[in-house]
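Researcher: Re-running this chain for the archive, since the previous output was lost when a drive failed. Same request as before.
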Amino acid sequence: MLKKMILLFILVGGLLSGYLFTQVPVLNINKLANSYVKNEYRNESIHYRIVHKRPRKWASLKALPKHVYYAFIVSEDWSFYNHQGVDLSQIYMAIKDHLNGEKLRGASTISQQLIKNLYTKSERSLKRKVFELFSTMYLENRLTKDKILETYLNIIEFGEGLYGITEASWFYFKKRPDDLNPKEAAFLAMLLPNPKVYSQSFRDKELTEFANKIVNSILNKLKVVKVITPEELDDYRDSNLSFEKTKVQSVKNKKQILEDEFFEL
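Model: Regenerated structure tokens:
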């Protein structure tokens, strides 16, 4: 075990030294501190571009209710405001597993996910993991936590050709992101990291068992961090999202169908 650990740290140390000054996108990250990211979806792929002018669909973190952005924090990265961008224990385990022949794990923290989306996409390799590590550390050093979170919410994917929380809020709920209630925010957070699959609930107009479980879990976590009250938890947990077919509507529809069939006889 000790030999493996020593070998692991030597390997990582060598890779880190080689990538520190040659691969980290220093200029882009420096620009990002005082700029925005514009999403451009074309040819069925997303392209990001750093711009100085605030994009029309950009959602400001200050304008969002706390329950909106905290839905993503408690779902994706509970200790976001406390860590330095990376979970070193997870990095260690990821590299160790990779050396043992397992598939390299993906990013874990919100900061790492931002780096992955902007600079490494879905490519996974040991070198890219090291690149991601140093880029994330540099990102955390140059940007505030709020800037990182705001940028993350404005560039992540919420469905096919759907990027950023403003587009997602309108597509799923016909609302601005600052008007989302806790359950709607929890639903959007639930869509990550696989919105094309997890948005099945929206297509079916009813939460799947999995989606219902995760949404309620996020709502409960919002209560734990005191973003919503126990009373609000009960209210939103028992409420339907706007796109869902209610049980009452379902019963009425069935009744109407039976009546129509009767009168046709």
